[in-house]
Amino acid sequence: MGTRPTRHSRGLLAGFLVALVASAGCFVGGVSDPQGQEPGGAASAGPPDPSATRADGTTSVEEFTQDVAGAQAVAERYWTAQFRTSGERFQPIRRITAYQREGQVSCGGQPLPRNNAVYCSQGDFIAYDVNWSVAAFRQIGDAFVFYLLGHEYAHGVQVRLGIRYDFTIQQELQADCMAGAYLGDSVRAKALTLAEGDLEEFREGLAAVGDDPDQPWFAEGSHGTAEQRTDSFFRGYEQSLKACGLS
Predict the structure, then answer these.
(1) Pairing mode, if any, of strands 27-28 and 117-120?
(2) 51 — pLDDT class (breaks 50, 70, 90)
(3) What pLDDT is stored for residue 226 in this prediction?
(4) CA-CA to 83 of 20 to 30 Å: which in 77, 145, 162, 244?
């Protein structure tokens, strides 16, 4: 999926999203961490294998950078329109920044680790490990960029709406739903192009990103079971934001 038609190697998306959920501390100093506690989540996963490239051969850093910028632009247009419909003015997230080593970027005094992507509410920015992200882009294609930006941007929108939950899983499932709405609505508005098989690949990937079956649903850092995450994303994708509990 992207601003141009793409093809992805089947099965790679699922593997990447497992690593994404395992490593990403979606909020740092955010709504899920109002007292500045350490963000929850599983241990950081290793970077994707850069030797495995996607089927359509898009591998350059320049193309990756263009897709990040494109995903950011689509997200900003989408949320600006949604807020305007409600009679509100949307303030875009201040910046999206890349880093290359652990501790190069901090949020609320907490250094961000490698192989990670987060939304930091204290600085109102999204940050990602560029080496890890480019390797994933080369494996999978630009679909992951739009999902990644959509999910993290949703956390920024939660902050703007003053949404607070007692449990991380509630925040994460709502962000999955909001990311689904952003993608589905953007496809329907023809702001994004959905290539043949992309929906099946997203379903395959989302089925693989659930928490360990033995992890309690409401444990700190929980993101939800595979069934919960798939259901949340596709409810948003198919039904838009009305399915995400924002009202």
Answers:
(1) parallel
(2) very low
(3) 80
(4) 145
The rounded distance, in Å, linking the Cα atoms of 54 and 64 is 13
Reported as a pLDDT band with limits 50, 70 and 90, residue 18 is very low
The answer to whether 142 touches 198, Cβ cutoff 8 Å, is no
The tens digit of pLDDT for each residue in 184-226 reads 999 999 988 877 767 776 776 566 566 787 888 788 878 888 8
- CA-based nearest residue to 102, from 155, 47, 142: 47
Distance of CA 130 to the CA centre of its chain: 15
Closest C-alpha to 147, from 233, 65, 83: 233
Strand 110-111, strand 106-107: pairing: antiparallel
E-only strand ranges, the chain: 27-28, 95-99, 106-107, 110-111, 117-120, 125-129
Q: What is the pTM of this model?
A: 0.78
227: left (phi over 0), alpha (psi -120 to 50) or beta: alpha
Q: Which amino acid is at 129?
A: D
